Amino acid sequence: xxxxxxxxxxxxxxxxxxxxxxxxxxxxxxxxxxxxxxxxxxxxxxxxxxxxxxxxxxxxxxxxxxxxxxxxxxxxxxxxxxxxxxxxxxxxxxxxxxxxxxxxxxxxxxxxxxxxxxxxxxxxxxxxxxxxxxxxxxxxxxxxxxxxxxxxxxxxxxxxxxxxxxxxxxxxxxxxxxxxxxxxxxxxxxxxxxxxxxxxxxxxxxxxxxxxxxxxxxxxxxxxxxxxxxxxxxxxxxxxxxxxxxxxxxxxxxxxxxxxxxxxxxxxxxxxxxxxxxxxxxxxxxxxxxxxxxxxxxxxxxxxxxxxxxxxxxxxxxxxxxxxxxxxxxxxxxxxxxxxxxxxxxxxxxxxxxxxxxxxxxxxxxxxxxxxxxxxxxxxxxxxxxxxxxxxxxxxxxxxxxxxxxxxxxxxxxxxxxxxxxxxxxxxxxxxxxxxxxxxxxxxxxxxxxxxxxxxxxxxxxxxxxxxxxxxxxx
Length: 475
Description:
Layout: H1 5-8, E1 37-41, H2 45-56, E2 60-64, E3 76-77, E4 87-88, H3 99-107, E5 112-114, E6 124-129, E7 132-135, H4 136-139, H5 142-161, H6 167-170, H7 179-186, H8 190-204, H9 213-223, E8 234-236, H10 242-250, E9 255-256, E10 261-266, E11 271-275, E12 278-282, E13 284-287, E14 298-300, H11 305-313, E15 319-326, H12 330-333, E16 336-342, E17 348-351, E18 361-368, H13 369-376, H14 380-394, E19 402-409, H15 427-435, E20 442-444, H16 456-473
Parallel strand pairs: 1-2, 1-13, 2-9, 6-16, 10-14, 13-20
Antiparallel strand pairs: 3-4, 5-8, 6-7, 10-11, 11-12, 15-18, 15-19, 16-17, 17-18
Helix pairs in contact: 2-10, 2-16, 5-8, 5-9, 11-15
């Protein structure tokens, strides 16, 4: 069981040829006169990718970032764990078909950890329900699996019927319904529905009744015929934040940190961005931050109603992640893989240190939607303590091995206000096409503007797309 298995498990969806070619290093500008100036708002993966590509093409780039670090929602817990172990606070897994992320990792010389190479087939995934920890296969028996297959097969039929290059048009009818509506129509067995809802909740960080069926179908279509073993296959060795750090190293003199954007003023021939004490005038602006962040920004830009509505209402999931380091990997000692789907506020756990050295081990704990909001409201120390207690309820005796923890509540983060886009019914057709268009000299990037929405892959692809569009427009 993996967090992304629900998407990849929908059998029969057609493979989609959306690979991104490898790119070279070095600037195309030849050291000559700049092609023009671009200001990028946000130093997450989307903004950094756009800035890096524009710099390569000879543009004068300035990146303004509200935080004191780069990476945005690509963040790694590091420095406080024993044995130099790390765990991912934000975006964690890289699928084998995430070609854009993998190409940049290759360019920067970042090694990928192949999580399938470290898997032990003798270890069991688990479900914790009714006060009992049981093997996954004992709970999801043939009867329950047959029901889950019915759901998967219907989603796959929808995926095969849409044009993934134009999903808002070809799948508009699906956007009027939620994934919960589909489960109602199929009248799923109650046990199967509980499992499906738990998987969906851990996948999208919203309730199934709040999730657009079209959005779920699009991600299923993108998975195509990707084998299950290639889903969530990689992490970057040493921490995923090494990727944004590598971008930042190339852009060092072009980064301005601790500069939250306050205003974007677009004129016919120029754009001015006011960020902290910085005022940057440029030929173009790339806005690469989550939509909720823009609610506090003065946007004097000719934006259509759909984009204004997306800024005000686009749904984002809410996730709380708490990484717990134990002196031993007790789950392995007891023949468990560490992956657990639960009925507790700690909705899922997995081994965050598979492939890492050391006697210690980090169990990542995850909560989404309503449970994430409740846990996120706690003081971090209280959140860690409560999570340790819930793990001890599932894995008895584990508390004596607990050493330390780190936690983050993405819904409480000022400069994200959520985890990743999780489109509500009606939003995909209304907002997604509009967010991919330029408005005068202002462009939008971010995972919410790409087919691979909610993935690091989507963020990187969007930055690449916008850089190409700006370059094609010229100064």
